[in-house]
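Why Synaptotagmin-like protein 2? Reviewers of the renewal asked for a concrete example.
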Amino acid sequence: ESDTASEISFQFNKHKKTPSVGSHSSDVASVSSVSGSVLSVYSGDFGSVDAQGTVEFALDYDEKNREFQVHVSQCKDLAVVDEKKGRSDPYVKTYLLPDKARMGKRKTSVKKRTVNPVYNEVLRYKIEKMVLLIQKLNLSVWHNDPLGRNSFLGEIEIDLASWDWSNRKLNWYPLKPRSLSAVNGVDHRGVMSLSIKYVPPGSLGPKNPPSGEVHIWVKDVKDLLQLRPSGVDSFVKCYVLPDTSKKSYQKTRVIKRDTNPVFNHTIVYDGFHTEDLKDACVELTVWDHEKLTNHFLGGIRLGLGTGLSYGISVDWMDSTQEEVAFWQEMMLAANEWIEGLLPLRSL
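Here is what the prediction returned.
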């Protein structure tokens, strides 16, 4: 049923178990260390203040150095976050979409106690012009809070395919509220076909399996974003959060030059207790493979979407209604393959 099978142990307590034959043992982070797990780079407070004001910037592409440049000049009349002190500590952040990953983020310095910050900074991206033209620039302004969550102050999004590249002048743009599509990641990135199954401990006979297992069968993905004329060289990564260690990491092979790749890859995570299914989250992400860096194309998160993992608030427990329903169906139908067709999204 699949050309590659990976099996990895997964546990949520401090006690090691004897790995099963053919599996790789994994000393996964204990519950007490869950709070140190990865948080979303987009975490922030979107609703505490209303977006207002303007931002002045210019765009340019340096053909010689193959470099995209965002010249951030200044902002005016930003919203006040700390009303008691009448202050905001703003900075500007940029992403190239759909590659909204850590490597795609740039940001300016923080200017303290001002709603009219002056930056005069250049944010640079090493990127081929052909790839740049199929992306969007997301420029947003944030209040920096070193002791809490940063507050969103406004944004602007530019389709670089239709940008006038002869325009290198600084121009003013009004800052807009966060769009629902940006917050929820509602943008078409393709659809993943997969099946999942939960095998409870001892359900196949005495001590067989010795611990619960989650089986993930990644079948194919259709209609991926095409980053180059020849197509896309894609592969799928898998983690079971809250574990983000290398021992938890699994991936498929790379399928070259195909926006509709067939992976047919099965992964088995053992070491599960049935109660762990409420607090764990299977994260599957699709990437375009390149020599220097991989580009994020989209992903899904399978879990209950409660925002909590073992009583701790985490940003990655954010499954959509479709993803939650898929996971719940698996929990209710032990030892049965549950088939799904889920849209990829921003994570």
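Residues 93 and 310 are 32 Å apart (CA to CA). This is the kind of structural detail the renewal will allow us to pursue systematically.
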